[in-house]
Amino acid sequence: MKKVVNILTIAGFMFLGAIQSTYAQDAAAAEGSETFHQILKRYFIEGGPGFMGIVLVALILGLAIAIERIIYLNMATTNTKKLVASVDEALSSGGVEAAKEVCRNTKGPVASIFYQGLERADEGLDAAEKAVVGYGGVQMGLLEKNISWISLFIALAPMLGFMGTVIGMISAFDAIAVANDISPAVVAGGIKVALLTTVFGLVVAIILQIFYNYIISKVDSIVNNMEDASISLIDLLAKYKK
């Protein structure tokens, strides 16, 4: 529930920012100059508030989830080499309890995995290794949480744009049928709507795809560090047991 609230909060701030930008653009229009944002606003209105609005909602929700994931992943990043060295020193000087205290005072999934492994250290290396592997899977699931929604919006945005394209072309042919004329002036409006919705859907998909790829690469990096650090922990426990 907390994650949902965070995502909705971010989306709300982005929506308020868009409203403030709209007021600023109207003020600039009153002065007789048209800014880049005003051009985008005009094209958005010309493309039709129906499908363009739905695609905009997909962009806002996708960006909100992406920003939340980026913040979470940055907070989950840990200096694993420093943590392994600290745990090694704690095991040598104070035993398992001292190492667990180091993990409790360190944020991130790697420290949590270390703590679970140290909790089972008294039961043997096999039990510690199983705890590390099992809890590692849990942490991996937390890292990948909600990422599938971003991929959904990436697929949904161009599809909505193409749907708007089809509807725009239907409108163009309807105009031809009503006017019984195929002059450019008759079909220009429908074709323009069709092209604008397609472009907007593709732009949204491109923006979200960039964030998605960054998040995936960040997750892969953290997971690799988790696996390397887990192997190092088992080696440290084996050395400590001797």
TrEMBL record:
<keyword id="KW-1003">Cell membrane</keyword>
<comment type="similarity">
    <text>Belongs to the exbB/tolQ family.</text>
</comment>
<dbReference type="GO" id="GO:0017038">
    <property type="term" value="P:protein import"/>
</dbReference>
<feature type="transmembrane region" description="Helical">
    <location>
        <begin position="149"/>
        <end position="173"/>
    </location>
</feature>
<keyword id="KW-0812">Transmembrane</keyword>
<keyword id="KW-0732">Signal</keyword>
<feature type="domain" description="MotA/TolQ/ExbB proton channel">
    <location>
        <begin position="107"/>
        <end position="227"/>
    </location>
</feature>
<feature type="signal peptide">
    <location>
        <begin position="1"/>
        <end position="24"/>
    </location>
</feature>
<keyword id="KW-0472">Membrane</keyword>
<feature type="transmembrane region" description="Helical">
    <location>
        <begin position="48"/>
        <end position="72"/>
    </location>
</feature>
<protein>
    <submittedName>
        <fullName>Biopolymer transport protein ExbB</fullName>
    </submittedName>
</protein>
<keyword id="KW-0653">Protein transport</keyword>
<keyword id="KW-1133">Transmembrane helix</keyword>
<keyword id="KW-0813">Transport</keyword>
<dbReference type="InterPro" id="IPR002898">
    <property type="entry name" value="MotA_ExbB_proton_chnl"/>
</dbReference>
<feature type="transmembrane region" description="Helical">
    <location>
        <begin position="193"/>
        <end position="216"/>
    </location>
</feature>
<dbReference type="Pfam" id="PF01618">
    <property type="entry name" value="MotA_ExbB"/>
</dbReference>
<dbReference type="InterPro" id="IPR050790">
    <property type="entry name" value="ExbB/TolQ_transport"/>
</dbReference>
<dbReference type="GO" id="GO:0005886">
    <property type="term" value="C:plasma membrane"/>
</dbReference>
